[in-house]
Each structure stands twice: as structure tokens, then as C-alpha cells.
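Section: protein folds

Sequence with per-residue C-alpha cells
===
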Amino acid sequence: MLRKILMLISLIIVALTLSGCFFPISSFHTLSGYVRDSFGNGVEGVNILLSYPNGYWKLKTDSNGYWSKNGLAGNVTITPTASGWTFNPTSTTVVVNKKVGIDFLGKPATYTISGYVKDTFGKSISGVTILFGKSVSCVKTNAEGFWTKGGLSGEINVKPQKSGWLFTPSNEMVNGMKDDVNFTGTLGIGEKTIIPLGNTPSGIAINEKDGRMYISNSSTNLISVYNVYGYTKINDMVVGNGPEGICYDPNHKRLFVANSATDTITVLDASDDKTLQTVFIGGQPQGMAFNMKTNKLYVTNSFYNAVCILSASPTNVIGIVRVDKGPKSVAVNSVTNMVYVTNQLGGTLSIIDGETGDVVDDIKIGGKPLGVGVNDETNMVYVANNSDNTVSVLNGGTDSVATTIEVGKNPSYVYVDPTKNRIYVTNSGDDTVSVIDGLTDKVIQNIKVGAGPTWITGDSKMGTVYVSNSTEKTVSVIY
């Protein structure tokens, strides 16, 4: 009888051993670890579930985020849980054949971040808008430059914004791993003033030497003359109907105006605001560019898909160049004597040799190209693609698109400041001007201006940029 009992006990021990549910005393070990947040602090009260084939243990972390369980062996799965927290890893399985340490990183399911915005001297900047991606409402800094935002989850792009200011860093990605996000602001580019007109402005030209600004009013037959030092109105000059493109010849003090409704070019003496002559060119002239070195004027003729070439003084048509469909704007590189024409309906940029008057290339660029500007010093060309919300950057040396830059909505016209190597682009769809750094080809600021910005030019002497706001019937002055 005793023999049978001993044999039965032996069989039970063998069965338990083979099933993995029995281990010698020496095979049991301790499993432990920590649960810490992203700052290295222990997370207290986290449930630690230890599960194995025939059972489980449940324990909690202490005030240091520590947990421990002895007497374990074989395969054990460890899973941390806590309300309002996520963990990395979410769970893990180990073979406990010695003392094992398993740590977890805890991250709140939602988190709060805050910070300060100050200038380079440590002075607080109030009223800075702090943006959090696209789906989270923004906040503003208070008088101390402080801001805070709670209820955030996941990875979010935090970006400060205030008209007239640039910030470092320009934005920062956060994911709850840090709770303080600070920015430093420097006074940048912003709107200085608004000049009310009463008429619909289009083209703008600057006479830097005499401090005058000429604005064509497309809804009338007038050119308005303003003093750039106080923005007081000096005079109105009568031209043809529907004046749009306008440019100034400092060599002979002449002002050229494209009258789209009368198919003419009006030539004015800028010294006494008198009309010198009217030249008929036909085909709804719009865009204009002047090369001071060659004394040639280029005018887009959208109806006939052509560019008219005129001698500036005296003003006579000396050639017509056929281009692609719907030419709108024209720009000249006076150094290379190359002429660039945007063809809005054709979606191309025509390149004309200023010496021969021949089209040397037609380059496919973005959707509905409208404005164009050239940096003579870097030989780079910038084209506003109106339907793509982009600017194409063309290398004038290779006649190839070097890069494409995303800007505001419906970019229209372009002004290039070669001294600062900055490019200004009006965005008529969101009433902004995008400022591009010509060195990095990055948008460094979007400036809010008046409603319906279109034509744009600048005054290097004053360091200002002027924008026609067609919907608002004003001109914005930015610096």
C-alpha cells in the first residue's frame, strides 16, 4: 500500500514538472522595476499585472514608482495600467530564470504645457498668439509673456505668431515629454500704416529720388501721386481707362502706364506730371518692366499672347514677341538682359533674350503663374503660381526650377529686394504677404495686410514695401 502511495506522489511530481507548473525552490526569482514619467519621476499607484499560464498577481507601484514580486519562474507577462496614462512598452513578456528588472515609461494621455515669450533683452512680449496645430484652439500670452495650454494629446506643433515679430525657435514639436516651451522674439517685418484711396488700386511705382509713389486706379482713368514721407496725396493724373501695370524710368523721369481698357500706353513726365504721349499697342496691356541699361520697355499683351517691346525714350514699338497663352507679368534681369514672362493660361514661363528679342525657352511651372520677380545679383527668378499656392524658384543660369516654396492662398504678385535678398509675395486669398529668405528659400514670415492684396513694389531708400489692396481700396506700407 505504501509503495502505491509513493508511486502516485512520484507521478504527480513528474506531471507537474512536465506541465511547467512546478519549479524547484531554487528556480524561483524576483521580478521588479520602475515606472517613471518623461522627467524621470516615479509614477505612484500604477497597477502592475503579472500573468502566467496558471494564474496572475496584481500589485501597485510605490511613491518612487517601484514595484517588485518574488517567487516567480517561467514565462511572465507584465502589463502596467493607470487611468489617464499610457505606457511604453504597453506590456512585455520575459522568462524569469534569474532576478529580472523591467522598467516602463509612463506618459499622460493628456498633458499640459506652458512657457514664456520674451525678447532678446528678457522683456515680456504680450499678445503673442500660440498656435497648436490645426485642431486645437490657440491661446495668447499675458502681460508677463506667459501662456499655458492643457488637455493636449499626442504630438503637436506649437508655433508663436504676432504681426511684426520673428520668433526663435519658429516652432517646436511637443508630445508631453517636456512641460515648458519658451520662445524668444525679435522685432521683424510688419504693417506700418494703411493709405486709404477711395479707388481700386492696381500697379505701384516708386520714384526714390523725389520720394514719390504712383498708384494706378484700375476702376478709373487716374494715376494718384503720393509723398512717401508722409503719405499725403500730391496729385491725380489722367491716363487711359483701366490703368494697371506701371513702371518708372529714373534716367528720363518718365512714368509708363498700361491702360488695359483702351489698349494703350500713357507716357508721363514725372517732373511736372504732364502727359507726353499715348502709344497704341492693342491687346489689353497689363504687366510692364523696364530695363534701364538697354532703355527698353516690355509690356504683356494678353489678348494676342504676345509681349510688346518699346524703346523708352522716345517711346515707340520696336518689336512684338509671341509667347504662350495669357501672358500676365514680366520682369527683367538687367545684368543678363533676359526677360521673363508668366503665361497664366499656358502654365509656363517664357524666357526672352533681350538682345535678340527671341524666345529662348518656355518652362512648365506651377498652376496659373501670375507674378514674377528677378534678383539681378543672384540670378534667381521667382514665380507666383496662383492656383497652387506656391512660388517656383528658377535658376537663371540653367533655366531650370530649383525648388518650389509653399506660401499663402492664391499668390499673385512678386517684389524682390536684392539688397536684403528677400522676396515678397502677395496672397490675395488670405490677405497676407509671404516673406521669403532668398538664401534659404524658406518663408520667414506671413504679414497680414489689407483685403485683396495684388500688386507690390518696394522702396530700397526708405526700406519699405507697398501693397495694393484691391478689395479694401487701400495701400499697405510694410517695413
About this structure: The helical segments are 2-19. The longest helix spans residues 2-19. Residues 14-23 have pLDDT under 50 and may be disordered.
